[in-house]
Amino acid sequence: MRKYFYMTRLTMMNVLQYKAFFLASLVSLVVKIVVALYVWKTIFFTQPEVNGFTLQTFTSYIIFANLLSSLNTFSLGEELSYSIIKGTIAGEFLRPYSFILALFFKDLGHKLLELFKFGVIFVGLLLFSRDFFLPDGATLLAFLTSALLGMFIVQLLDMAFGFLAFFTVNAWGVMLLRNGLFSLASGALLPLSFYPQPVAEVLRWLPYNYAVNSPVSILLGQETQLSSLAMQVLWIPVLACFIALLWSQAKRKIVIFGG
Length: 259
What we know:
mainly alpha
């Protein structure tokens, strides 16, 4: 496992080489959260409750939804799809490690840096304002468990999107589709309860719901912990089987450019 953790460390070192970009992304996340907070504070000024949210609970939703959205932004599927199109995947499978497992650990490096950014921002929020909802220890533990399972679900989905490059030979369009679906169905833009009820019911059954909306709903006490966690655990083997099926089909239709 040492070589995989080395890949995590190497990814973090590569990102931190571009210090200006790292700081710019940190400032961008701060601005995104602050602007959203002020916009919704204005909305709640005229009414005490919106769709079951108070200003305090919605502030918590914005903060933690942005955290989970940032953690799931970096797509291992993007690296996988481009390696397929460029043909470098052929060489990767000859190396003395699992290429797929290496992708997971590289993605972990990005996620650890996003956690660091969020830690800095969260400390800043605690210093300037504490007008948001924080749960008890048991609920917080359930939230963290759900968030970890949600991240793993997104990684599996990203891998599925990456394997689609075998069939489309167009990674750019596939990644645009991935990002659009994530923003719409995960609750990163708005809680799913803000959508029309028929649309919200459909989105709640999709796996992206368990990346942002479901964990934050657990944090706020709006969703049953056991049922949500059980659905997340159920989705993981389903997605793993789907990826195995995609891979078995892809090996019959490999088209490599640039290899």
